[in-house]
Write a structure and sequence with these properties.
Three copies of one chain form a homotrimer.
Chain A (H helix, E strand, L loop, with lengths): L3 E2 L2 E2 H20 L3 H5 L2 E9 L3 E6 L1 H18 L1 E14 L5 E13 L3 E17 L2 E11 H4 L1
Chain lengths: ~150, ~150, ~150
């Protein structure tokens, strides 16, 4: 645990990962689609079986999907908050980071209060590009689709 | 991320901020009103639009409000837990810290189980006084009041 | 906060504790009973008043209980996720660690979606054995049983 990871210690990497998710998730939940897409690598992938079983590939495609989604939610008066917790951080030999998080997705609809929409697990491979962590590969699963 | 903040590294500041919220929130949720008020600066402010649109100012006023609230909840057999997650920590040039957190407020009522009461976002300016982090300014918003 | 704890700094200990819980909880929630039991000390104890008022003592007994529970949940198509947040970490003079966490227990049942099952507080004494953190004593309380 004291060993440096590249030039970074484990606690430095953890602080970075926690910071990454906080910023990434708040951008996504606030509908800032293009900035969210920029937190993926250029050829980043996202898959969410069984619903999205063919990976979405690349920042441009991700940005378009995020934008369409954000506009729809805004029009419908719906807000999602992805509450990340219990984040397991593992540094791999190649310097990439595997992070497995619990995500409580809370939905708020105008006039209907807030409730737990889905319990998800998010498994990411994060890589460092020009000093910044980015999502290279994401797999999201919903407990109610796999139990 | 490696750069020292004042004399502290980013990961030191993050560990402090996480510790601050854990202690602060557990004091609040356990009805320890005066100790909670002491985690604000002497002239600390709290606002929660639209319900509390005029800021509550100062430790004494905060303590009185927290005490009245805690006593009422205790009499009614109600417990709130403010589950902080997804905490974004930014250190500002003046040494203060901006922290933006997701807060799932869970309510438990005697004989009625626990449920999500509100999904909130808490935006704080934290400052250091005699080495201790304190809340100088707080803005809390509820998603169901702003969507 | 800068002071070393044994040979570790506070932020190192915090990173370790957060890592411990992420791994421990994910093992438990995935039904890996024996690996979960191995994250307790040989004579580790667990109590959850009022339901479990007599402590469960020892890794072997814990493993048996966890295994029976995991098998039953699997047969019933139920998944629990224990979302840990707001973790207060205190290092004691004897080198042990007191950690007090909020735990939102989310339950997912086949065909019934996910919902908040219980709001718990988990109070652990963690000790270091051969360099690894382990639970020596655990007390879990449910808000709906103590309000």
């Amino acid at each position: 645990m004291n060993a440096a990871v590249g030039e970074k210690t484990y606690e430095q990497v953890c602080a970075e990962v926690v910071r990454f998710y906080a910023r990434h998730v708040q951008l996504m939940d606030e509908g800032r689609a293009e900035e969210t897409a920029a937190t993926f690598t250029e050829d980043g992938t996202m898959v969410s079986p069984p619903k999205i079983s063919t990976p979405i590939v690349g920042r441009t495609t991700l940005a378009a999907g995020l934008r369409a989604n954000a506009d729809q939610l805004s029009a419908d008066g719906i807000r999602y908050r992805r509450c990340y917790s219990t984040i397991l951080v593992e540094v791999r030999a190649d310097g990439s980071i595997f992070a497995k998080s619990y995500v409580q997705v809370v939905r708020t609809e105008r006039g209907k209060g807030s409730y737990l929409h889905a319990m998800c697990v998010c498994e990411d491979v994060l890589v460092r590009v020009d000093g910044e962590l980015l999502v290279a590969e994401r797999v999201v699963t919903r407990d109610d689709e796999i139990v």
